[in-house]
Amino acid sequence: MLNHYNTGVFFDEMMEDNGNPKRHYRSFYQLMENFSEKELREKHETAQLNFLRQGITFTVYNHTGGTERTMPFDFVPIIIPEPQWNKVEEGMKQRIKALNLFLEDIYHDQKIIEAGIIPRDLIENNPYYYNKQIGGVNVPLNNHVFLAGVDLIKDENGDYRVLEDNLRNPSGMSYVFQNRYVMRQVYPELFFEHSIETLEHQVSELHKAVISHTPPNAEPQSTPTAVLLTPGIYNSAYYDHVFLAQQMGIELVEGRDLIVKDDVAYMKTIRGLKRVDIIYRRIDDDFLDPEAFRPDSALGVSGLLRAYKKGNVAILNGIGNGVADDKAIYVYVPDMIRFYLDEEPIIPNVETYFLSDPEKLEYVLENIDQLVIKNVGASGGYDMLIGPQSEPEEQNEFRRKIIEAPHQYIAQPTIKLSRAPAYQEGRFYPCHVDLRVFVMTGDYTHVIPGGLSRVALKEGSLVVNSSQGGGGKDTWILSEGGETHA
Amino acid sequence: MLSRVADSLYWMARNIERAENNSRVLSVQLIHMLEASDQEVMDRDWGEVLDICASKLDYMDRYERIDRETIIQYLTISPVNDNSLMNSMNYARENARATRDIIPNELWEILNEFHLAQKDWQELPNTRQHTQEYLKKVKTTSMTAQGIIESTMSRGIPYTFIKVGKWIERADKTARVLNVICEKNRKESSYGTNNYYYWLTALQFLHGYDAYIKEHPPTMESRHVLDFMIKERSFPRSIRYCMDHVMEAVQRLEGGKISHYSKDLFQMLETIQEEIKEADIEHMDMEELMSFLDHFQDRCLTVSRMFSETYYLIEPVHVR
């Protein structure tokens, strides 16, 4: 079936250059060979319909309003041998620990600035640094990052690297579960002869992590009341919110369901007001409390920040996390790991040049056609240059922008993102993939085995984002019969 | 339970029930239409259907004349009619979507499936056959939804809010249909010919023909029909049955106790039960019956409002 499959110059998750499957994909490859073309096509259809029928959709907005779409699902899983996964797991725990210490530090003592590791400007000029609002506030467990989604890629040597940290409202966890669910429904045969880490109990780990953030002034005897705060049914990640609230057995609330009275948060129930202790919010900081942030926010709750500062309610993820996951701070995460933990990073960053450094600046201006340039404050592919795919005019434009505001930009070498086979429209072809790993922290840190493998289904595309034609794959941690990639 | 969620469940149930009832009325009318020959009679019949399923006044404001195809479109898939089947089903789905963490997954899926199929319906040519199929789809979706609710939901608070919505909506619709038919009877009592046909229609609109005919074979007397549809204890679409069940549901919600906040609601429900019991349907003339039914429809509005106030219900979710 993969007869005409060409791995090219990229690292392929499944296939060797010589056309044979990698060792940890051998069983899968054989099982897959048993399918006829007709079966493959039918199963593919069934899988897509499954998502649509269950309404596992995200909303794409354009000028005519919103359309509900499903994220395309691809059945070829990303298989990761356990020893390799163990390293990722350790790397993630280390990284999140350091990022959390960093957040605690910059909202309190600012030792890392005193030590000259990170320039003060970089933090104080960051639009998501909310020191005025929450500086000096102690949060439960001193934990700011309850749930992180770390995006990993593999380079041309097959080594994992961190592309991005998401410490605010990482979404997509429901897809990890739904991809597995649909996979088991539609492709049960493929699970034979494989011993895969199960995803059962992962939601109870998440629930445990939520509940462990009891605010200091919660009633000591009773179990704390936790809620998930959603912007509502029109939010593009609404399904994610529904799924997590439902699975954890906590109320799914909107801003209008909450009220703060005498600095205590309550939800409005049919029996009157009920005290809320922990809010897992899926609303950005800006919209959380019109009193403290954007006054025009209709999604938030007035007075929530006061309740938070008084220790009457816990808010997860912590307020002000945005200062730790932008593109400029990213560069310093390895230094954070060294500074706070006195360790070397287990999973490295993608090499990144800071353009305020005159030496790097010169190098970047000369080699702009080989590099990716990103605006540190932008996201979603805006204000970005992919050197090898750009015209000289665009390059000049960016040279000009960089010289004008060098601190606003970073540069990275264009990485040959790894690829894996995808089956769409009746044929297999190689597509770029990445992996979002979910790291949850309460009394201890836990990493969901696997995570959300995202795939750029448009041939040659590097964009895995679901709003731009990206799809999802199941991710298997193989507990036996695998082999670490050397 | 959150007030907003309770409210969405209540309106989800009302919208599903409304869509089912309206599709039945329209479906019956599409059959009757085939046998009518007089244009004037036909226009009048359509006017009544409009009054039962939406508002004739609103319709006339917009279109100015009775036109069959326009009315069918208005009642089925029109976005401008708040009570069109499409809108009711969309509201129900949006309400279900806002309570997905509470309701059975299958309930969401059945409403979502209807929504997904809706796009195809809109593109089909507007033939009688397609319209009937669409109406049937609405009815089976509603019935499947009720089956899922009955067979999978715990008899707790969410279930109770769903049921209260359904019973109030149904009682109100029954009163509305009877009211329209009484009005028709009153106007034409001088001729006294088509009585049989009118009351048959009422029973068909209300899905009560089969049950009625078993009790009263094979007559079709107005006072029997009215008594059956208003006071029959055992028929699940009669006004009395619906209101008894609203009462029962609220009692379950309150664990059999009457508290200061629920006192008014209980009092109102008791008054209504009393009024139904006391009504001497057999000896009322059409005039009196209509005012009884008008009064009952006002009562439905009051109960709905009181119920919302008692449980702090807020504005329902509406499609943007």
The largest β sheet of chain B comes out as:
none
Task: Give the biggest sheet of chain A.
Answer: 8 strands, mixed
Distance between the termini of chain B: 25 Å
Largest interface: A-B, 23 and 24 residues
Q: Which class of the domain at 353-413 in chain A in CATH terms?
A: Alpha Beta
Report the count of strand segments of chain A. 21
Write down the overall geometry of chain B: globular
Helix content of chain B: over 70%
Q: Give me the Rg of chain B, rounded.
A: 20 Å
How large is the radius of gyration of chain A? 23 Å
Order of helices and strands of chain B: HHHHHHHHHHHHHH
The portion of residues forming beta strands of chain B comes to under 5%
Shape, per Cα inertia axes of chain A: globular
Poorly predicted runs of 5 or more residues of chain A: 482-486
Multimerization state: heterodimer
Indicate the low-confidence ranges of chain B by residue numbers: 316-320
Number of helices of chain B: 14
Number of self-contained structural domains of chain B: 2
CATH fold-level label of the domain at 353-413 in chain A: Dna Ligase, domain 1
Short descriptors:
heterodimer, A: 486 residues, alpha+beta, Dna Ligase, domain 1, 29% helix, globular, disordered C terminus, B: 320 residues, 73% helix
Give a written overview of the molecule.
The complex is a heterodimer of chains A (486) and B (320). Chain A is of the alpha+beta class and 486 residues long. Chain A has a domain at 353-413: 2-Layer Sandwich (Dna Ligase, domain 1). Helix content of chain A is 29%, strand content 24%. Chain A is built from 15 helices and 21 strands. In chain A, the strands form 5 sheets. In chain A, strands 3, 4, 5, 17, 18, 19, 20 and 21 form an 8-stranded mixed sheet that branches. In chain A, α2 (37-53) crosses α7 and α3 (82-106) crosses α13 (333-341). With 320 residues, chain B is mainly alpha-helical. Chain B folds into 2 domains: 1-153, no CATH class; 155-314, no CATH class. Helix content of chain B is 73%, strand content 0%. Chain B is built from 14 helices and no strands. Chain B has helices at 3-32, 39-53, 56-63, 68-76, 85-97, 105-123, 128-152, 157-187, 195-205, 209-215, 222-231, 239-253, 263-278, 286-310. In chain B, α1 packs antiparallel against α7 (128-152). Chain B is globular. The interface between A and B is medium-sized, with 23 and 24 residues.
